[in-house]
Design goal:
The complex is a heterodimer of chains A (274) and B (87). Chain A has eleven helices and two strands, in the order H-H-E-E-H-H-H-H-H-H-H-H-H. Chain A has 274 residues and is mostly helical. The longest helix of chain A has 33 residues. Chain B is elongated, with a radius of gyration of 15 Å. The chains are: A mainly alpha (274), B mainly alpha (87). The interface between A and B is large, with 46 and 45 residues.
Chain lengths: 274, 87
């Protein structure tokens, strides 16, 4: 009986890490942080979405690729909680640009989630075509998201033609998602960069949705640095890879004065790195 | 276990929302925003959450209008309001 119990319980080392995670969560985010870590731990122990240690090369233990699912679930609970319990009104309710953008992001996240929960459910070609179609439609119906110039003389000539600009932006968005997905699988640094980027944008613009996303990414980073149980997976890569350009696009459109030029200077190297 | 985690998150958000409402009722006089490190608030939102909540309340203070439904934002033009307009 005692042996069975010992086999089922985590080892002392893992227990020590979990206690550390919960204490840090409580210190940083109170009972909300403890709740976030419990959600993440329960998702990381699910049988579904398990990856062997050898499949990534940078993980010494078997890990879960439901990291993105954990981020999306936590973010949505925070966001819906803020909207239902507080005086916060979701941006998608009063701005169709946000509605189109976030609908596309949700569609891509669902594509990623299907792959995370059941590998090879959708063929790579299908996912690529679906993403291309989604983004081409988004940029077609929301031309405000396509920049008219980016300050580079030769490229600005191409962007002057709306058709070329639309095609280039569609290709960039889809390529960016796949690049982020590969980067996460290669070195696992992606959540850290996303946390810093979103945190800086929140500190600058004080938007509640960015605050919720920053808190979620920060909690995920702390949980994963200590436990190493998660990879972002397709869900997280798609969501993070799309959220940041979405914010960048918003910042780009809003930056009308020289005082607002810093986000451009800040986001350009970040997006280039990714 | 997942449900317990979700309930804790919702409990925390509920507490922070009540705090934001108290701040608006008090007329955003700083009594709520400035008490970042009070023990009760630390238990509810922690160091990071408490600071984030204060920033959001300060942001809301700039755009919430209580006496009429006309939005008068002190933010830069073009920035979208994150809070509902209250009568």
């Amino acid at each position: 009986m005692l042996n069975v119990l010992r086999q089922r319980l985590p080892s002392i080392n893992i227990m020590y890490k979990l206690v550390m995670i919960v204490l840090l969560g409580f210190l940083m985010l109170g009972i909300t942080g403890v709740g976030v870590f419990i959600v993440m731990y329960s998702l990381s122990t699910m049988r579904i979405g398990r990856d062997l240690a050898a499949s990534h090369g940078i993980s010494a233990i078997n890990s879960s690729r439901l990291g993105g699912v954990a981020i999306v679930v936590t973010f949505l609970v925070l966001l819906i909680g803020m909207a239902m319990l507080g005086s916060y009104s979701l941006g998608v309710l009063w701005d169709t640009t946000f509605l189109n953008l976030w609908s596309t992001i949700i569609l891509c996240v669902l594509l990623g989630a299907a792959e995370d929960f059941r590998p090879d459910l959708l063929s790579p070609h299908f996912r690529l075509v679906a993403k291309l179609l989604a983004f081409s439609l988004l940029l077609w119906v929301t031309p405000a998201l396509v920049p008219q110039s980016i300050g580079i003389p030769l490229v600005d000539g191409i962007f002057a033609e709306p058709g070329f600009a639309w095609a280039l932006c569609t290709l960039f968005c889809v390529g960016f998602i796949n690049a982020c997905n590969m980067a996460d699988g290669a070195n696992g640094l992606f959540p850290g960069v996303a946390t810093i980027t979103i945190g800086v944008l929140f500190l600058e613009y004080d938007r509640p949705a960015e605050g919720a996303l920053f808190i979620t990414c920060l909690m995920f980073l702390i949980f994963n640095v200590i436990s190493g149980r998660f990879f972002l997976g397709d869900t997280g890569s798609y969501a993070s890879a799309l959220s940041s350009p979405a914010m960048a696009s918003w910042v780009w459109r809003r930056a009308t004065s020289p005082q607002d030029s810093w986000p451009r200077s800040y986001l350009t190297p970040v997006l280039s790195y990714w | 276990m997942l449900l317990v985690g979700l309930l804790l998150i919702v409990g925390g958000v509920n507490g922070l929302s009540s705090m934001a409402t108290r701040a608006v009722v008090a007329g955003c006089d700083g009594s709520v925003v400035n008490s970042v490190y009070s023990p009760k608030r630390q238990a509810l939102a922690g160091i990071v959450g408490s600071n984030v909540a204060s920033r959001l309340i300060q942001c809301g203070e700039n755009i919430i209008v209580r006496d009429n439904a006309v939005l008068s934002s002190r933010h830069a033009q073009g920035q979208t309001p994150p809070f509902k307009v209250e009568k």
